[in-house]
Structures are given as C-alpha cells and as structure tokens.
Design brief:
Organism: Psychroserpens ponticola
Number of strands: 5
Enzyme class: hydrolase
CATH class: Alpha Beta
GO molecular function: RNA-DNA hybrid ribonuclease activity
Catalytic activity: Endonucleolytic cleavage to 5'-phosphomonoester
Strand order of the largest sheet: 3-2-1-4-5
CATH superfamily: Ribonuclease H-like superfamily/Ribonuclease H
Helix content: 25-40%
Pfam families: RNase_HII
Largest sheet: 5 strands, mixed
Shape: globular
CATH topology: Nucleotidyltransferase, domain 5
Order of helices and strands: HEEHEHHEEHHH
Amino acid sequence: MSLLANFSELDLECGTDEAGRGCLAGPVTASAVILPLDFTNITLNDSKLLSEKKRDHLKPIIEEASISFAISHVFQDEIDSINILNASILAMHKSIEKLNPQPNFIIVDGNRFKPFNSIPHQTIIKGDSKFLSIAAASVLAKTYRDAYMAKIHEEYPMYNWIQNKGYPTKEHRLAIKKYGITKYHRKSFRLLPEQFKLEL
C-alpha cells in the first residue's frame, strides 16, 4: 500500500505550500500546517480560489485550530543565488522545521520536493484544492506574504505592491521601466519584456 493511501491514518500529517513563486519582487513564502484529523471547514480551499476577504477570515481560524503551524520567507538575494525552485523548497523546509510537534508525514502541493529529515512525503498535483492541510498552508503563506508586501509598499509606493503583491503586472513592469529596480527585486528574473532595456 502506498504512503499516500496510508496518510489519513497519521495524526501528525503536515501540509505545506508556498506563495510568490512567480513574483518579480519580494520573498517566496511558505507555510506548513498540521490540522487535527477532525478539522472541517466548508470555505477553506486553494488560496488562489479565495478572495482576499475570505483568506483574511480563514487565517485566524486555521491558526487557532491547528496543532502546529509555521511560516518562513526566503528573500530575493537567496532566490537569485539558489533559483526559485530551490528557494521554494527551502522555504517549505524552514516552515516544517519550526513545527512543534514535528510531523510524521508531509504532503506537498505540486510535484517537486526534497526529502526533509527522513520524514516520508508525498507530492500532490493541485493538492491545495484536494487536502485541507495543504489548503490551510496555502492560505497562511499567501496572507503572510501579502502582509509583507504591504509593508514594503510603504517604502516604495510607486510599484503598487499593496495591490499587485510583486507579480509581473503591466503596472509593475512600467514602474520598473520608469524607476528602475529596488533591493527587493529579484535580479535573476526577467523583470521587463525583452524590448525594454533595464540597467541592473
């Protein structure tokens, strides 16, 4: 029998997910969550399918109900150094490492992960819309990252990070073209379309 078939029997199953992987600025943020086996919530789903209002409503519910939860940022300099995939996995590892108690099984949104401390794991495509602990992790990763982007928006309001969260919107790219880049931008990313020249 596969590990995936058995994990519902494990009382310390951890779900983990990240937010901000496709952004041009700011950290990639991950969360890890262990929920009680009897936890239910009819609203909880993949954070990308929820409104900001619903995510903000769910955040304290998840935090209060969870056996353990954690959030970790991996910032732009490290993203540039080790690449976004490795940074995303590192952020998930850092979050799992903070959990107390430690999980005895890890389920991961997506199809890429690296083993963590010999704890069995399973990657699950679209796991954030299939399993509550991954959905909970996606909501926490998204809300904590959004809060961070709102904070640094105050330092550089011309990029409107409070609205675009650092994603490559037309507005964000036009601001990069006009004002250049900041210490929060990921220099290893294509910050502007090729027809624009950017001095790094």
